């Protein structure tokens, strides 16, 4: 059984819309676990009133993304999950999303799968996976490189985000859960999928399965939209900081081939130090 794990903290409207999109799926042989990390906007009452079929795990407001996902995965495993899908609450899945994810999961039962992301406002694709050249810290955007006629099926990638990320039980049994100690929020999803690939599991972006996202609502975008010295500090050192130097270092030490590590680290530090002001 597939269990979809969704960590939430406030943003009730997004959570409701996400769950309604999951309720409208063409394939319904899955269950949902919401990890409510101390929301104060009535999320708990809404879930109890409108989504009685959803299992809820409570947090105290200090889980952040990684520990929240891990708490949901642990609960799902006790309920007999053999596949886990992590999902953020600020996504809308198209009606055949689960069907198209499980179609390929059943053909490649040990593969880790992500999905093609669309802009919720325009319906246009905005993210379809990356291939990273560790030697030069160059990211090859599959959407930019794939001809439109080839934008279907599975495409191998270096790592995947946690929005609609399908993980077979075999992967969890081999590499464990997400690294909540060293990567409490950002990069935990990229790290997990990269580690899975290093352990021999195929990692694909599934271009047949689509979900819509709100790109302007990410924490990184909001921080950059209101630039300040405080925002710059949070960008580099805060738990939710998209350029967090400690997180980047941990990710690099775990995943980068040793011979490329010195350049990759120096290049990455430079990008984070100046990138806040360039985007």
UniProtKB/TrEMBL annotation:
Organism field: Hymenobacter elongatus
InterPro entries in alphabetical order: Glyco_trans_2-like, Nucleotide-diphossugar_trans
Top-level lineage group = Bacteria
Example GO molecular function term?
Answer: glycosyltransferase activity
Q: According to its UniProt record, which protein family does this protein belong to?
A: Belongs to the glycosyltransferase 2 family.
Q: Which ranges carry the Glycosyltransferase 2-like domain?
A: 4-117
Q: Sorted alphabetically, which keywords does the UniProt record give?
A: Glycosyltransferase, Transferase
Name by which UniProt lists this protein: Glycosyltransferase family 2 protein
Q: What SUPFAM superfamilies does the record point to? A: Nucleotide-diphospho-sugar transferases
> Is-annotated flag, keyword Cytoplasm?
no
Source taxonomy:
Bacteria, Pseudomonadati, Bacteroidota, Cytophagia, Cytophagales
């Amino acid at each position: 059984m597939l269990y979809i794990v969704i960590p939430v903290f406030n943003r009730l409207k997004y959570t409701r819309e996400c769950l309604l999109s999951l309720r409208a799926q063409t394939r319904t042989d899955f269950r949902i676990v919401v990890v409510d990390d101390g929301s104060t906007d009535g999320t708990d009452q809404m879930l109890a009133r409108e989504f009685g079929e959803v299992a809820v795990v409570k947090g105290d407001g200090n889980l952040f993304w990684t520990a929240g996902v891990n708490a949901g995965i642990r609960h799902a495993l006790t309920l007999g999950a053999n596949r886990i899908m992590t999902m953020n609450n600020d996504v809308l899945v198209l009606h055949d999303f689960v069907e198209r994810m499980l179609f390929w999961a059943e053909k490649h039962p040990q593969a880790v799968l992500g999905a093609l992301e669309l802009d919720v406002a325009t319906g246009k694709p905005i993210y379809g996976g990356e291939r990273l050249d560790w030697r030069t810290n160059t990211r090859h955007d599959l959407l930019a490189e794939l001809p439109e006629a080839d934008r279907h099926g599975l495409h191998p990638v270096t790592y995947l985000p946690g929005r609609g990320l399908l993980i077979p039980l075999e992967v969890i049994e081999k590499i464990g859960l997400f690294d909540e100690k060293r990567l409490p929020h950002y990069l935990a999803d990229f790290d997990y999928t990269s580690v899975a690939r290093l352990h021999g599991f195929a990692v694909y972006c599934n271009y047949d399965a689509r979900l819509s996202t709100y790109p302007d609502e990410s924490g990184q975008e909001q921080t950059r939209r209101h630039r300040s010295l405080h925002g710059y500090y949070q960008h580099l050192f805060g738990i939710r900081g998209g350029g967090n130097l400690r997180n980047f270092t941990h990710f690099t030490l775990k995943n980068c081939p040793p011979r490329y590590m010195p350049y990759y680290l120096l290049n990455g530090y430079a990008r984070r130090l100046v990138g806040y002001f360039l985007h």
